[in-house]
Amino acid sequence: MSARLGKRTPGGYKYEVMVCRDTGCSSNKGDKVMERLQDLVRERGLEHEISIKRTGCFGFCAAGPILVVYPEGTFYSRIKPEDAQRIFEEHLIGDAPVKDLIYPANILEDKFLPLHEAPFYKYQKKIVLRNTGLINPESLDEYIAMDGYQALHKVLTAMTPEEVIEEVKKSGLRGRGGAGFPTGLKWQYTREAVGDQKYVVCNADEGDPGAFMDRSVLEGDPHSVIEAMIINGYAVGADQGYIYVRAEYPGAVHRLNEAIANAKAYGLLGQNIFGTGFNFELELRLGAGAFVCGEGTALVQSIEGHRGMPRVKPPRMAQAGLWLKPTVLNNVETYANIAPIILKGADWFRTIGTEKSPGTKVFALGGNINNVGLVEVPMGTTLRQIIYEIGGGIPNGRQFKAVQTGGPSGGCITAAHLDTPIDFDNLTSIGSMMGSGGMIVMDDHTCMVDVSRFYMDFIVEESCGKCTPCREGTKRMLEILEKITEGKAVEEDLTTLHELAETVAHASLCGLGESAPNPVFSTMANFADEYHAHVVDKKCPAGVCTELTTYFITDQCIGCTKCARNCPVSCISGTVKQLHVIDQEACIKCGTCAEVCPVGAVIRR
Questions:
Q1: How far apart are CA 83 and CA 272, in angstroms?
Q2: Closest Cα to residue 301, out of 217, 244, 258?
Q3: Can you tell me the distance from the alpha carbon of 217 to that of 224, in angstroms, rounded to the nearest whole number?
Q4: Using N-to-C axis directions, what is the helix angle for 448-462 and 474-485, rounded to 10°?
């Protein structure tokens, strides 16, 4: 199918090619694809006809590296550097899209559907991720072309600080960092606090395993956060802001530094913004990767140059935050909602989502799921829609078992709750939490006791150690979970585990410690039979815990010797065409024999 002749992009080009340069696609040679296309365009002298641009994350990480050709929006997936020549010659020069490189679900007979009509995007609503995948994140001009800094201009020239706060309160926006506290109230309390200096802080310390929502926003649309922080400063009376971002995000750090410099060069940041007399400065502070620094008071301790450890509350951040001055702290996703709310109004925002949780939520969808990636959906979307209609279901025909939301502080949700509309209150009511937005899907090969052990191991490693319940309690919980997965536990250990979890939850100093036992609570409540099997029957039903797993070769064995030849410890004996036997003492239970057996004669018990 040929491109429509004469149709041009909004930039005046025959074709604009957007190449994902987010960390994920770049690590898979997406940067090489872009460089090759740029070389080909230069060699032919077609810079005025064809534009090759970098962009942020498209969200559909499972299909990366992604390349989209406009004006049609042709969606190329899993592109390799060697594919660039064909796309250039056949599509950009010959006006004929390369069918075998287009994302298969977007091929409809002789018609190629544009990117946004892929099933992955069908149920999504983009507010936070509105510009990622559409603009060059290193171009301030492109951000401005997408109404960038219009909200800031409106605020500084036509609204009082109180009106800004009232609009945010009216929108019902709740903090997207975990607890879901009303953003407008947080701003109001900081505005009302007495202080000769106030601060605005962005929490970009994304530490949950499997989470990459904030990174994608910072790499793909950094000005959306900067604009919102300036608005926040105006609303609460602050002239200084800090973005606290982990040093493990070099791409995000680079984009932020570049975006701050560009905003200053354009007069959008610094002194006398828009000639209104309002001043606002913004700086980065890099974290060393401590999970506990995602907690607000620990984060400000780190900015101050101290070891990141939580403070006792009260006083709250609004009264005594950074350097004991009134401080407002929001996360990346929360800030990314601000400009659209100011421009389109609180009433518009409330038409999306649910009554108590308006707007959208971004999730990092991962684990045992076909369509791994970033998903932004209206609040109230069900887990079933996300996992099956957007996520494409479970790979390899496996069955859904659970989904973990909220990271190490969240809980495991079962199939019984797949039709639960997602919002802050509903997730809490079924034993989990929203958290920052990690969503890890697990299939029926997952051991839920081992999942609990994994998250507790993470918590023990990341505990700051300031309070005894978290420092000692989580360590003892981990020891019990290890006993269970090794087949050494007794039934009394289950009672002790639950009692310890209760103590840690009620006696820890900060929210991270209080929520640390959540994976234990949810797995013990929803998968009690698995704990019983481990403790009483000394078996792991999922076959994950090696100490409780045994491999046997049945009489279906055809004596092909494949298992023996592939065994890494040579613990399988037998001659050709004879039944083979596994030496249980020497077996390391790696499962290689079961994987390579052509007739399924190796079973796991």
A1: 49
A2: 244
A3: 8
A4: 150
Angle at the Cα of 208 from the Cα atoms of 206 and 212, rounded to 5 degrees: 55
Token pair recorded at residue 21: 């340069």
pLDDT digits 0-9 by tens, 311-335: 998 999 999 999 999 999 999 999 9
Give the burial class of 347: count Cβ atoms within 10 A of its Cβ; 0-12 exposed, 13-18 middle, 19 or more buried.
exposed
49, amino acid identity: E
Tens-digit pLDDT profile for residues 471-494: 999 999 999 999 999 999 999 999
Give one word for 91, left, alpha or beta, with left for phi > 0 and alpha for psi -120 to 50. Answer: alpha
Task: Provide φ and ψ at 524, rounded to 5°.
Answer: -65, -35
Peptide bond into 71 cis (omega under 30): yes
Q: How many CA atoms lie within 13 A of 415 on its CB side?
A: 9
Q: Are strands 327-331 and 199-204 parallel, antiparallel or unpaired?
A: parallel
- Among candidates 76, 72, 78, which has minimal Cα distance to 99? 76
Helices (H), 306-391: 332-336, 338-344, 346-350, 383-384
Write out the H or E segment, with its range, that includes residue 497. Answer: helix 491-507
- What's the number of CA atoms in the CB half-sphere (13 Å) around residue 164? 28
Counting Cα atoms < 13 Å in the Cβ hemisphere of 69 gives 29
| Residue 492 φ/ψ, nearest 5 degrees | -65, -25
Number of helical (H) and strand (E) elements in the chain, helices listed first: 25, 20
C-alpha 70/C-alpha 436 separation (Å) is: 33
C-alpha 360/C-alpha 348 separation (Å) is 12
pLDDT recorded at residue 177: 85
Q: Parallel, antiparallel, or unpaired: how do β-strands 438-443 and 572-573 relate?
A: unpaired
The bridge status of strand 15-20 relative to strand 67-70 is antiparallel
Reference 214, options 176, 174, 258; nearest CA is 176
Whole-model pTM over 0.90: yes
Displacement of CA 382 from its chain's centroid (Å):
18
Amino acid at 578: Q
What one-letter code names the amino acid at 482? Answer: E
Tokens for 566, please give them. 């592939």
Give the H or E element holding residue 231. helix 222-236
Residue positions counted in the chain: 605
What are the structure tokens assigned to 111, written together? 């018609």
Phi, psi (deg, nearest 5) at residue 369 = -145, 145
